[in-house]
């Protein structure tokens, strides 16, 4: 198990670094676009396309990170009312629903990527499928994240007292 835990932590640490770099590059490109358009009065056509692409990749990879932390997997109110055995049963149901939905999204994203493989983004001079492939990659990583989170076993529900 230590090797699996190491791979798990390394994979999601790598995804976190890539996601942070993508969001940083999107902010830098958007900032450059504002400077180029309003100060230099010579807008760059690539910066808007890159910002959009980087944000799409950031969201798809960020979904996997959120699922790995368990941020999107709980039904806290129901979870807190159930006994230990039923809590784990609820976690199994949530796992199944999440994996089924994410698998469907990966399949649809793969189909979309395949359909647009010959279209290019003129401003970036690359195939638009490099942007669309973020969907199946993000969803497959999210499936891995859901399973890794579930495999850690039952956990105590965290209740935010600030909202009550």
Q: Can you walk me through this structure?
A:
The protein contains six helices and two strands. By secondary structure, the protein is an all-alpha fold. A two-stranded antiparallel ribbon has the order 1-2. The radius of gyration is 20 Å and the shape is elongated. The mean pLDDT is 88.
Key words describing this protein structure:
elongated, 164 residues, mainly alpha, single chain
Helix content: over 70%
Share of β-strand residues: under 5%
| Number of beta strands | 2
Radius of gyration: 20 Å
Q: Summarize the main sheet.
A: 2 strands, antiparallel
**Regions with little confidence, pLDDT below 50 for 5+ residues:** none
Order of helices and strands: HHHHEEHH
Described by the principal axes of the CA atoms, the overall outline is elongated
Instruction: Note the gap between the termini.
Output: 39 Å
Number of helices: 6
Structural topology:
Blueprint: H1 2-39, H2 45-69, H3 76-81, H4 84-115, E1 120-121, E2 126-127, H5 129-132, H6 134-151
Short structural summary:
75% of the residues lie in helices and 2% in strands.
């Amino acid at each position: 198990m230590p090797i699996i835990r190491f791979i798990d932590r390394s994979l999601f640490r790598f995804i976190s670094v890539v996601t942070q770099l993508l969001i940083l590059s999107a902010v830098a490109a958007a900032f450059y676009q504002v400077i180029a358009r309003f100060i230099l009065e010579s807008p760059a056509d690539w910066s808007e396309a890159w910002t959009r692409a980087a944000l799409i990749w950031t969201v798809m990879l960020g979904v996997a990170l959120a699922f790995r932390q368990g941020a999107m997997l709980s039904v806290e109110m129901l979870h807190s009312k159930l006994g230990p055995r039923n809590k784990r049963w609820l976690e199994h149901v949530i796992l199944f629903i999440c994996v089924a939905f994410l698998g469907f999204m990966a399949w649809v994203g793969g189909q979309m990527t395949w359909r647009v493989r010959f279209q290019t983004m003129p401003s970036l001079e690359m195939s638009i499928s490099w942007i669309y492939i973020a969907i199946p990659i993000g969803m497959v990583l999210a499936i891995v994240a859901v399973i890794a989170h579930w495999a850690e076993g039952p956990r105590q529900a965290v209740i935010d007292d600030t909202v009550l």
